[in-house]
Amino acid sequence: MRYLNRIRNLLALGAAALMLLSCSYVIRPEPAIKSLSIGTLDNRTHEPKLSDTLREELTRELVQRSIIVSEGLDSELDGTIKSIEVTPLAEKGGSIVKFSVNIQGDFNLRKGTEGQPIKLVTPLSYLVTFGSDVPLDPLYSMREEAVRRAIADLASDLAAAAALER
Question: Which residues are within 8 A (CB) of 109 and not within 5 positions of it... i.e. 6 or more apart?
Answer without folding.
Answer: 33, 75, 76, 77, 117, 118, 120, 161, 162, 165
